[in-house]
Amino acid sequence: MKVAVLGTGFGAEHAQIYERQTNVEQVIVWGRNPEKLEKLKNDGKVCVTTNMEDIWQDDSIDLVDVCLPNHLHREMAIKAMESGKNVYIETPIAETMEDAKQILATAQKTGKKAFVNLFMRFEYPYDYLYQVKQKRELGELKALYVKRDTPPWWGNLDPHEIGIQLMIHDVDFICRMLGAPDEIKTSFVQVRKNESIVSALMQYQNAYAQIQASSAMPGAHPFSLGYEAIFEKGTLRFYEDGYENNRTETKLSLFTANDRIVVPIQDSYGNEDEIKHVLACCEQNLPIQNSAFDAALALETVLRMNESMHLA
After folding, report:
1. What is the pTM (predicted TM-score) of this model?
2. What is the pLDDT of residue 300?
3. Which of 11, 98, 272, 283 has its CA 20 to 30 A from that of 254?
4. Rounded to 10 degrees, what is the CA torsion of 147, 248, 39, 44?
């Protein structure tokens, strides 16, 4: 297969992942910065260009990976599909529902596959919970608490931006577990410039989910995430604390009426596992686990959160 990557930010990491895949023969990276592009060149599997027309006019390219600013996602995804290529879009799928709907319509019109980076679906602790729910091993899921807290490492994450820039993966996780919420109530506080805390309560007919995110944790605080899922017959709890020195603490525990079980966390690298899935779907007619349709639902839910804060 031949893959094109647009962008040298997250795109650089994606290019390195594609380079490691045995079913990828060549990776072409487009960017505006010649110095960044030069760093990505290697012994021949990765080549670079500053001319985007090289991408659109190359009929041998199977997949275009869009790692550009959010406002360009719609334009680039549509160009990729209209030029006969499948597309993999960095989260979010787009900035507006109108743009997302245009991407979905183009995929349907062209018959090309549209994937979106929903990497948490490929992280073991989150997929483990999904499989437990699917198998009904603990009965019905009644409540789901999800959190993500970070020091101010990621630029502007004020109440306007934190949903689409930080919380959207957790929102997708909730939607995968429970579907679109019937009602959303959201609270927020601005702590400092570009730093905020947001909490959203999502109501369902027989369950509810609560999602909390903070971009205002102090510098020594870890990048912290996790969940607690309460079923009729037990509870699953997961947390992960990541520090700047690459030290990570994680634990996944299952609690029932009589037992506490520490669940071994299998090694997984969400981004690489997801890209392997994308490549396999391009080669074969496999069910897509990270579809543009699912990403559009996550975007719609985040926009509903913003509306409930009067931030739309």
Report:
1. 0.95
2. 98
3. 272
4. -100
